[in-house]
Amino acid sequence: MTTRDKNSGGAGGTSPKHAAALSDFIAYWQRMRRGGDVPRRSDIDPRGIEALLTNAFIAERIAPGLARMRIAGSHLTDLMGMEVRGMPLSAFLVPAHRDALSLHLVRLFDEPAMVRLQLLSPGGIGAPELTGEMLILPLRSDLGDISRALGCIVTTGTPGRGPRRFDITQGRITPLEGAAHVPQGAGEAPPARPQAVPGFAEPQAPLERSAAPRKGERPYLRLVKS
Fold first, then answer.
1. Model's pTM, two decimal places?
2. Where is this region: Disordered (predicted)?
3. What domains lie within the chain, and their CATH numbers?
């Protein structure tokens, strides 16, 4: 199911349009790798991933092989049919494929490595077949440990009735060169933070909250231009 590959190209269930956007997403993350190191969470500016902002997420490692979503774009809420903040990343997969994701996450945070997963959600009543890709890129916390991840989920097809859960049809692991692992809490003092951009900041309202939300509304990740 998993291949070890030095390239970052996507294939399979990813449309040409999404493949180009994913390449730009990775290119932005690579530019944040100053000196080849893993970027810090505070380095990430949503303006750099605007094309996939509704598909993007920030996850936090909470145990080996387990990551929880801290921020998520509106497309992910649409896929699940519910708010996804606080959910484990594995919630997007069928139970039989969650152990595989867990192994990928261990390598992503420990080696560290880039993870790309081709996805398939079979069709059903009110839910047409979906193909897609999950991309997960390691980040450092402000303490210096690799315990955060920047990622996105792109899909081709109409989400239909949620929740939509996926099989992993193919996995690709790309180990990062020149990125030293720092034990949790052992990092140096963090650099000055870039100016926060509403809609992507923590711990202040990380999702869209232009005003007190009306009943029935779901907050979601967005880019706020000034």
1. 0.78
2. 181-226
3. 2-31+39-175 (3.30.450.20)
